[in-house]
Amino acid sequence: MAPPPQPPTATKYFWGDSPEPDEYYASLGLRHAEAYFQSPCGRLFTHSFHPLSAASDGDVKGVVFMSHGYGSDSSWMFQNIAISYARWGYAVFCADLLGHGRSDGVRGYLGDMEAVARAALSFFLSVRRSGAYASLPAFLFGESMGGAATLLAYLRSPPDAGWAGIILSAPLLVFPDDMYPSRVRLFLYGLLFGLADTWAVMPDKRMVGRSIRDPAKLRVIASNPRLYRGSPRVGTMRELARVTVLLQESFGEVAAPFLVVHGTDDGVTSPEGSRMLYERAASEDKSLILYDGMYHSLIQGESDENRDRVLADMRAWIDERVRRYGAAAGAAAADGQAEAPAA
């Protein structure tokens, strides 16, 4: 058997071999922490980011809960998104999804997206309902496959969650035609009664050429020591195909304010899914931004100029929602928590 492909020669951190993490985050005006969280579905590895200017946990504009994309984790380039939001004055919490990074599960396996979403939601709510965070406006953020997990977590949230808004970056809501898993393969592997569910044997159609535009950033992303490099697993493709259909059927249940952004030349997730969500959602406050000619990875893989444009749009949107709804959303969530029975 041939040895598995090895990552390119990598630096210690995505920013290089130095400085060490505490010094790096402090240079950006942030404090950072890592921890494990035991969810009902498995243990999650988590990060938090706060602006150093915040005298206490509650001395921030709001709190944002983030989910990364397929095969990735929250410890490498995805941090750039969390760091940006924290530097804007938000407390940010990320979790490696089950089957990814340092969380529990078979690497690259998403055989039960309900469990994946439930585990992340359990962590998010444990923070959202604690201390000073209960009175703050809270937002969900998801990128790519993490966008599907985020929307599923929103749909499974209890009424007292009090989400002030949702931000989705190139969410996986519709498979592009040439990315869709072969129904014949899924049927044939299904005849093995689940024995093949974790097999990494599905054709790899990730189309990296339409995912990450900047070659230098692609090299950094590819050097992530925890990046899943195997072929898609049977259960992962089966479940993502199922969940995208389920989400499409549930778009009308989305009532929270949301922003969805997508590149028109995305070859990994279809911009049509973002259009469908925008058109069908019940939300009165909804925004869709399509970036002409941009690829899939809008923040991690585009040019600095394009990245800054996307981040500026996200910042304008979230700051405006805090201004519009922040106090009311935080008060409603705090009241709901006060009235909720003890777990």
TrEMBL record:
Organism: Oryza glaberrima
PANTHER family assigned: PHOSPHOLIPASE-RELATED
Name of the coding gene: LOC127761768
Serine aminopeptidase S33 domain: residues covered: 59-301
Source taxon at top rank: Eukaryota
UniProt protein name: Serine aminopeptidase S33 domain-containing protein
